[in-house]
Amino acid sequence: MQLGLVGLGRMGGNMRERLRAAGHEVVGYDRDPALSDVASLADLAGKLQAPRAVWVMVPAGVTDATIDDLAAVLDAGDIVIDGGNSRFSDDAPRAERLAGQGIGYVDVGVSGGVWGRQNGYGLMVGGADEHVERLMPVFEALKPAGEYGFVHAGPVGAGHYAKMVHNGIEYGLMHAYAEGFELLSAAELVTNVPGVIKSWREGTVVQSWLLDLLDRALDEDPELAELSGWTEDTGEGRWTVDEAVRLGVPLNVITASLFARFASRQDDSPAMKAVSALRQQFGGHTVRKP
Q: Where is the 6-phosphogluconate dehydrogenase C-terminal domain (predicted)?
């Protein structure tokens, strides 16, 4: 199958190579000429036979502008796929705009990171049945081998919604491992913290790919001394918590893990300064000066 691919960064570039290895013809465009197969979106459209399918894999902040530019060089019957980390609520308006030109739209939540080229990508897809069915050869090539790793989650927006929840769960899982690591590191009895993490990788109920990656990080830096605790969030955790508030669903763990990332960015927490001041005021408790 032919596929246009816009955005050839860490994810998009690896996806191009995995698709080509599976026998698909991929024409890639990137603003970096060193990565791009063509000089422009118009050139990309010209290289593809109608009806075209073009996958957009760009940062969320430029997705709408990229899709609008792409739509200007596509025709009725073509399909645009957004595989970036877009907010699910952006999908329906995009689909509506494209439908005015007779262009289909499919949203795909993609998981797998830099390991996807080797291991395959988890794909959560939203869109009309006929569009998803037409794209199945591409999805089959990108997903891991076997029965898992792909779902047609529902209509337009469902793919990105599923990926949002996936990433919210990821926040909670990562933070649970992180807290366990910190407690082990503080314990007087445990003298081989990396060894404990490694022992959990097989035969335990907490084994997972994330645990494998923590073990890999500890192999490289047993005390994580080369890393700062400052941790970014890219939006999906916030959107997940927003939806929990809207629907009245208690997300205790995911919300706490998101707020822990906020706390990681404070050198000296104003809130904890206030707590310290209050303890001193009502109880005369000792406080530490900066």
A: 159-290
Instruction: Could you please state the CATH topology (level 3) that the domain comprising 2-154 is classified under.
Output: Rossmann fold (3.40.50)
Please state, in angstroms and rounded to a whole number, the distance separating the CA atoms of residues 178 and 181: 5
Is 188 designated active site? Answer: no
| Domain with residues 164-270, CATH architecture | Orthogonal Bundle (1.10)
Q: How far apart are CA 269 and CA 123, in angstroms?
A: 39
- pTM for the complete prediction? 0.93
pLDDT in tens, 258-284: 999 999 998 888 888 888 888 888 888
Catalytic residue among 47, 170, 198, 243: 170
| Crossing angle for the helix pair 63-71 and 91-99, to the nearest 10 degrees | 10
163 a catalytic residue: yes
Q: Where are the domains of the chain?
A: 2-154, 164-270
Summarize pLDDT for 81-98 with one digit per residue, the tens. 999 999 999 999 999 999
User: pLDDT digit string (tens) for 155-179?
Assistant: 999 999 999 999 999 999 999 999 9
Catalytic residue among 163, 188, 198, 202: 163
Q: Are 50 and 78 in contact (CB under 8 A)?
A: yes
Q: How far is CA 219 from the centre of its chain?
A: 25
